[in-house]
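Sample pair:
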Amino acid sequence: MSLAAASNPPKPKGEAGPRGTAHCRNIDDVYGLESRRLIGRVLAPYLDEMWLTPIELLHGYE
């Protein structure tokens, strides 16, 4: 069972995009939980290498 299936995330808001993802319609969508989860999955190798979380990536970690 995948991590995404185990956590059972809510359905994305907005219009369906590639592979069933949703497009962000405003800045709140970019910083929302669903976006941070997607960023964490897609950029996992980079984030792990840099010891960053999706929130730190969005807000600047310096």
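Residues 23-62 form one domain.
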